[in-house]
Structure formats: C-alpha cells, structure tokens
Design brief:
Helix content is 33%, strand content 16%. It is globular and about 55 Å long.
Length: 290
C-alpha cells in the first residue's frame, strides 16, 4: 500500500488533513517525520497552528536554539482561532521536529512554516479592528508560494481538510491552481472502520465514484450566531454529484483503532493572564459574526 512519503515521487506539495486535537492524527504525524526518509524527501512543513508574525521564533526553536516558553507559546496562541491549538498535540509535534533536526546536518533540517493569518491581537480592541479572516487560506497560499514554490522546495501541508480540498473555491489548493509548479497530492482522513487502515488512492478505487458529501460530511457542523448566541448548524461543503475523486487524491483511514481528543491542560485558563485574554478574543470574534 502506498504511503504519504511515496506521494512525493510525483508531487512537491502533499496536503494532509487533520482532525483537530486528535491523538491518533498526532501520533501519525510524528511517526511520519521520524521516518529517516522524510527529511530526505521534504524541506518544509506548513502548519495551520502558527502565526507567521512569530516565524523567527519558530525557526529558532525547531533548529534547537533556546527559546523562552512564553515566546514559543505565542506561535500557536496568537492565532485567528483563540484556544484552537491549546491541545498539547501541537507543541508535541514541534518538539518532535526539533528532536529530529538535532540529528540532521543544518542543510537538511526541516523548516516549519507558520501559515495562519498574521493577526496582531495587541492591535485589536473590537470587531471593527479585525482583519478579513476569510483571507486565511489566501495568506497560507502566499506563504507556500513564496517560501516553498519560489525556492524550489517541497512541503508537507498540515491543515484541516476544509482548507485543502481540490476544486473548492478559495481553498489553498485552489488558490495555487495556476502555478504550473504546484504539484499537489491531497490526503483527507476518514473516521470509523469504513475501509481498511492505511492510505487509499481514490482514483484507483471504486470509492472515487462515491458522493463526497456521503463520505466526508457525516457530521459536519459550523458555528453561527443566532439571537446573540453561538450555535452549531449544518455546514455542507459539497453539492450533490461532487465525487470523492473530485476533491481528494487519497483517504487516510485508521480503521477501528480507538482515538482520543486531547484537551488543553488543566489550569491553562483559570487564574492566568491567558484565560481572560482568550475570552476577550473570542467575544470579539463572536461580535464580528453577528
């Protein structure tokens, strides 16, 4: 069965979707970069859980330099999703890259590129100060264009699946479709024991003819403000007739292996300066949605 590393034989950009806070997905990513072949095939890892304004700090950390914990936390805490990346699985991944880089020559070390929108929360006091966060994928695409494609490098792109579907307007993949040198291989995880564990290429499988919504949107929810309160609503992405092969190249299945959602550590918000600041940011975002 083909692996994600094999996908780099014909692609310079391999996008791997993730379920946020998932221990299963986290362990898979860490095992992937620990494969000795990974650093030979891949130059960069593009992450959703990092603010580009703190790229210099991130560069120093994954290259083994001393970085104050408070400075490092800003990489994932100062993002467009307040609290979204507070699960330990994300800093664990950065630690894993740092550990692998320590054993590599400087010229072969992996670079981690923070690719969320470069938001500066210190300059935001209300919803009117917020940037257009619909530009998140455009910002990520610009980083990939400048730091990966323009430099002739290859990257693993780690984002939620909604950001990497093919043939969906405004996704990172769609925004780079006019770059002839952007050769994508898109991998979307699928939950449950639907197929055998491993990577299944949909264009080589009868699964490719299935409706994308039936396979990928079994429990799709979005947040919407109704009467001043945030609620979950259905958030369908695919219209009827869109096939699985239209939006992804492969499915990643863990079969019936049990998973766990890894919550932020106890005490992260209570009695800290960070807790009230996260509340402030969330209130501003909800006000913007009204």
């Amino acid at each position: 069965m083909r692996t994600i590393l094999d996908a780099f034989d014909g692609a310079n950009l391999v996008a791997l979707g993730e379920r946020h806070w998932s221990r299963q997905h986290s362990e898979y990513r860490k095992a992937l970069i620990r494969d000795p072949a990974f650093a030979r095939e891949v130059n960069d890892i593009v992450i959703e859980f990092g603010n580009p304004l703190h790229q210099a700090v991130l560069d120093r950390y994954v290259n083994g330099e001393d970085v104050a914990a408070a400075d490092l936390r800003r990489v994932w805490q100062d993002t467009t999703g307040p609290g979204a990346w507070d699960s330990p699985v994300y800093v664990d991944f950065l630690d894993a890259v740092r550990t692998e880089n320590a054993g590599l020559p400087r010229g072969r070390r992996m670079r981690v590129l923070a690719a969320d929108y470069p938001i500066d929360w210190s300059a935001i006091s209300g919803p009117a100060d917020l940037p257009n966060l619909d530009e998140r994928d455009r910002s990520a695409a610009a980083i990939i264009q400048r730091e990966v494609l323009d430099r002739g490098r290859r990257a693993l792109v780690l984002f939620g699946s909604l950001h990497i579907y093919r043939n969906r307007p405004g996704t990172i993949v769609d925004l780079l479709k006019d770059r002839a040198d952007a050769k994508w291989f898109v991998v979307v995880p699928i939950d449950g024991p639907t197929i055998e564990p491993g990577l299944v290429e949909v264009h080589k499988s009868v699964m490719g003819d299935l409706d994308a919504s039936d396979v990928l949107e079994k429990s799709t929810k979005r947040i919407k403000v109704v009467d001043g309160k945030p609620v979950f609503v259905d958030g369908k992405v695919f219209e009827p007739g869109v096939r699985l092969r239209d939006v992804t190249d492969a499915l990643l299945s863990f079969g019936d292996e049990p998973d766990e959602s890894v919550a932020p550590p106890a005490g992260l918000y209570s009695g800290t300066e960070y807790g009230p600041e996260i509340d402030r940011r969330r209130k501003i975002l909800l006000q913007k949605l009204r």
